[in-house]
Design a protein that fits this description.
Shape: globular
Number of helices: 17
Helix content: 40-55%
CATH architecture of one domain: Up-down Bundle
Low-confidence stretches: none
Radius of gyration: 24 Å
Mean pLDDT: 96
CATH class of one domain: Mainly Alpha
Number of strands: 12
Order of helices and strands: HEEHHHHHEEEEEEEEHHEEHHHHHHHHH
Strand content: 5-15%
Largest sheet: 6 strands, mixed
C-alpha cells in the first residue's frame, strides 16, 4: 500500500465527506464534479509516476521511517541525492500535467515541520518529533496526499496578528483542553487541498511573544469537523460544466484548484500538534517551507515549459510557419527560459545544506532567485506563445459552432491552416494556448507563479538578507581589483 496508483488514490477520495462548496453549492462527491475533476487527475498523476518504468529511483524512495518504498511527495530529504530526485519528480509532473502537482506543498511542509519539531524538542524537552514521526509513518504507509497550509488571510496588512481588529484574520488557538486545542481562522489560496487526505497547517509568518496563540502547527484530516473548503473561481472555469465540452477546455485532462479553508473552532488532539506557543520557531518554519517551495517553482516550471515549447512548434506547423527563422528564434528564447527556470531550481537543490535534524533544504539565495524568475519567465513564455498563435487565442468561435449544422462548415473551412492539419486539431492547439495563458491554467501558471511562496518584493528582500554577510567581501574584491587594496582575502 505504500505506493498507490492514481486510480487507487481517486477511489480513496470517494467516501470522504468533506465540507466543500463550489459555486454556492455543497458538493459531497468532489471527484465527480466537472470543475474539480481535472485537479483530481493532476494529483492522480503523481501516484502513477512511481509505477512508470525508469521513474522508481526518483519517484519511490525507500523510507527511513516505514522501511518501504514511498511516494517522493511523502519522503524526507536526507541527502543532496534526495533533493535532486525531488527535482526530477517536479519536472516530470510538470510536463505530464502542464500544471504541476499540489502535493509539492505537502512535501515542503513535511520536511520543514520535521526539522523544526526536532529543534523545538531539543530546546523545550517536548515530544513533537515523535508525534510527527508517528503521523508521517501513517501518511507514508497509506500513501496519503498531504497539503501544506500556510497562507493566512491577513486582514489589515499594516497590523501584526495580535493587533488585528478581528483576531481571526490569522489562524490561532482559541481554547486549550486536556485532550488538545481548538483553532479558528482561515487559510487562503490552498492549492489542491480539497483533493488531499491530510493537511499540515503552519503559521504564515514569524510570531512575537504576544502572539503565542498564533504559533501553532498541526495536522488534521480533510473531513475534520468545522473545516470548510470554499472553491476558488478561475477564468472560464464553467466551460468544464458545458455539456459535451472538449475542444473549448484547452487542457481537459489536468488542472489546478485553490480553496479558502475555514477553521470554525476545529478541535485538534495533542497527538497531532507539533508546535504550540514556541513562537521563536515560527520564522524558521516559514523560511524552510518557503525555500523548498521556491526552488520547486523553477523545477516544475521547467516541466511546464517543455509543454509550451512543444505547443509552439505544433502551432507553427499548423499555421504553415514551421520553417520560418523568426519562429525558431522565438523557440530558442523559450528553450532558454525553460532551462533557466529548471537550472536555477536544480542548482538550489545541488547546493543545499542539512539542518541539525538531518533534513536538507535548498540553497536560500539560489532558491530565491529561482522563484524570482518564476514570477516573470512564465509570463514571457506565454507572451511568445500568444504571439505565434495569433489573435484567434482571444476571438475563436466556440466548439458548439464547429458542431453546428448551419455554420460548422464555415468554421471548418475558414479556420484551417495548412491542409494536412485538421481544423479541429488547430482549434485544440489554440484553446490550449488560451487555457494556459488566459484560462483556468493561467491561475496556477501565472498568478500563483507570481505570488506563491512569496511575491517578487519579498523574494528580493530574502535574497538581500541571505547575501548580507557576503556583501562586504564582494566590496573588498572590487577594491582589490581596482588597486585600492593589496590583499584579496581568503576563499569565500
Amino acid at each position: 500500500m505504500a505506493v498507490r496508483t492514481g486510480e487507487q488514490y481517486i477511489d480513496s477520495l470517494r467516501n470522504i465527506r468533506r465540507n466543500s462548496y463550489i459555486l454556492g453549492q455543497k458538493v459531497d462527491d468532489i471527484v465527480a464534479h466537472p470543475m474539480n475533476r481535472p485537479a483530481v487527475n493532476a494529483i492522480a498523476e503523481s501516484y502513477d509516476i512511481p509505477h512508470i518504468k525508469g521513474a522508481q529511483d526518483f519517484a519511490a524512495p525507500l523510507s527511513s521511517l516505514c522501511g518501504q518504498p514511498v511516494n517522493r511527495y511523502n519522503a524526507l530529504s536526507q541527502s543532496i541525492e534526495d533533493m535532486l530526485a525531488r527535482g526530477e519528480m517536479e519536472r516530470t509532473i510538470g510536463y505530464r500535467t502542464a500544471v504541476g502537482c499540489p502535493r509539492s506543498t505537502g512535501f515542503d511542509a513535511i520536511n520543514a515541520v520535521y526539522s523544526i519539531a526536532y529543534e523545538a524538542d531539543l530546546k523545550h524537552n517536548t515530544s513533537y518529533l515523535e508525534r510527527f514521526k508517528k503521523w508521517l509513518r501513517g501518511v507514508q504507509e497509506n500513501d496519503l496526499a498531504v497539503s501544506g497550509a500556510m497562507t493566512d488571510v491577513k486582514g489589515d496588512r499594516r497590523k501584526r496578528p495580535s493587533k488585528q481588529a478581528d483576531p481571526d484574520m490569522y489562524l490561532h488557538i482559541v481554547e486549550r483542553k486536556e485532550s488538545g486545542v481548538v483553532v479558528r481562522g482561515a487559510k487562503a489560496h490552498q492549492t489542491g487541498a480539497v483533493n488531499c487526505h491530510q493537511h499540515l497547517v503552519m503559521p504564515t509568518r514569524g510570531m512575537n511573544d504576544e502572539e503565542k496563540d498564533y504559533a501553532v502547527c498541526f495536522s488534521l484530516p480533510v473531513d475534520a469537523k468545522g473545516l470548510y473548503h470554499i472553491y476558488g473561481r478561475q477564468p472560464s472555469d464553467t466551460r468544464k460544466m458545458e455539456e459535451g465540452a472538449s475542444i473549448d477546455l484547452g487542457n481537459g485532462r489536468f488542472g489546478g484548484c485553490e480553496t479558502l479553508m475555514v477553521f470554525d473552532d476545529v478541535f485538534v488532539p495533542w497527538e497531532n500538534v507539533y508546535l504550540c506557543g514556541e513562537n521563536e520557531f515560527t520564522w524558521p518554519l516559514v523560511n524552510r517551507f518557503a525555500i523548498g517551495h521556491r526552488a520547486s517553482y523553477g523545477l516544475a516550471g521547467g516541466g511546464v515549459g517543455d509543454v509550451v515549447i512543444g505547443l509552439v512548434v505544433a502551432m507553427a506547423e499548423a499555421n504553415g510557419l514551421a520553417s520560418d527563422k523568426i519562429i525558431w528564434d522565438k523557440i530558442a528564447d523559450l528553450i532558454i527560459c525553460c532551462q533557466t527556470l529548471y537550472g536555477l531550481g536544480l542548482s538550489a537543490m545541488l547546493k543545499g545544506k542539512p539542518t541539525p535534524s538531518g533534513i536538507y533544504f535548498p540553497d536560500y539565495v539560489l532558491g530565491g532567485v529561482a522563484k524570482y524568475n518564476a514570477t516573470m519567465v512564465p509570463f514571457q513564455m506565454l507572451r511568445i506563445t500568444q504571439d505565434i498563435c495569433g489573435g484567434l487565442v482571444a476571438t475563436m468561435p466556440a466548439e458548439q459552432d464547429l458542431r453546428n449544422e448551419a455554420v460548422g462548415k464555415y468554421i471548418e473551412k475558414y479556420l484551417q491552416g495548412v491542409p494536412q492539419v485538421p481544423t479541429e486539431h488547430r482549434m485544440r492547439l489554440v484553446r490550449l494556448i488560451e487555457c494556459m495563458s488566459l484560462g483556468p491554467l493561467s491561475a496556477d501558471l501565472l498568478t500563483m507563479g507570481l505570488h506563491g511562496a512569496g511575491s517578487p518584493y519579498p523574494q528580493k528582500m530574502m535574497i538581500l538578507n541571505d547575501y548580507a554577510e557576503k556583501i562586504p567581501a564582494l566590496r573588498d574584491l572590487a577594491l582589490y581589483h581596482a588597486g585600492i587594496k593589496d590583499d584579496i582575502g581568503g576563499i569565500m
